[in-house]
Amino acid sequence: MNRFKVGMDIYDVKHVIIVEKDWEASKMRSEVMWQDFCRRQGLVTDTPYEAFSFGGPGSAIADPLAQLVLAGKKTATCSAKLLYEVEDEPLPEVGSYSVILDSRNQAQCVIQTTGVVTIPYEEVTEAWARKEGEGDLSLEYWRQAHWSFFEAEFRLVGQVFTPDQELVFEEFQLVYRLPEASLG
């Protein structure tokens, strides 16, 4: 089966037309926010950045997680290291920028990576879970939500998620938002 990738998410080809159209439109919206951010911060506009929505384009979790970033409650995210390797993508780097998109691919804010740590799923601590800002902030909630998420992601690439899988935790700070950026 043919698949394609947007960020760290892999999709079946049957979704290409819809996602590709939405992704092209989102690049324009993210580019507008990026240009404004660079102008206000005195950065060169060709400074590299990525644009993504939590969970991938159109994901049900994109809006609530973007809202947590806007509210200052979500200051970290994680991905499976294996998925970076499968897609031959570089790991996040301290100092890099990202434009966060909502489920409609509208740019919501700019974040900057402040830390990157690789640890096995089974060694994630309550402190790391809390930084992700999700649910009741407990490690138990984090484990349940992320186990389901990673199981599905690994299935898409023909792998099985196990407790010893390495995760890449990315800490970030909110560095820019439009005054009207709100999902509520």
Structural description of this entry:
- It is a single chain.
- It is built from 5 helices and 7 strands.
- With 184 residues, the chain is α+β, with helices and mostly antiparallel strands.
- It has a single domain, classed as Sulfate adenylyltransferase.
- The strands form 2 sheets. The protein has a 5-stranded mixed beta sheet. The chain has a two-stranded antiparallel sheet with strand order 1-2.
- Strand 1 (3-6) and strand 2 (9-12) form a beta hairpin.
- Helix 4 (126-132) packs across helix 5 (139-156).
- It is globular.
Task: Itemize the secondary structure elements and their pairings.
Blueprint: E1 3-6, E2 9-12, H1 16-41, E3 49-52, H2 62-70, E4 76-80, H3 81-86, E5 97-101, E6 107-120, H4 126-132, H5 139-156, E7 166-177
Helix pairs in contact: 4-5
InterPro entries: ASCH_domain, DUF984, PUA-like_sf
Domain ASCH: 52-176
Organism: Abiotrophia defectiva ATCC 49176
Spatial strand sequence of the major β-sheet = 3-5-6-7-4
Computed structural class: alpha+beta
Task: Compute the average pLDDT.
Answer: 84
Cα distance spanning the termini: 38 Å
CATH topology: Sulfate adenylyltransferase
InterPro entries: ASCH_domain, DUF984, PUA-like_sf
Protein name: ASCH domain protein
Structure, briefly:
This protein is of the alpha+beta class. The protein has five helices and seven strands; from the N terminus they run ββαβαβαββααβ. 24% of the residues are buried.
Descriptors for this entry?
Sulfate adenylyltransferase
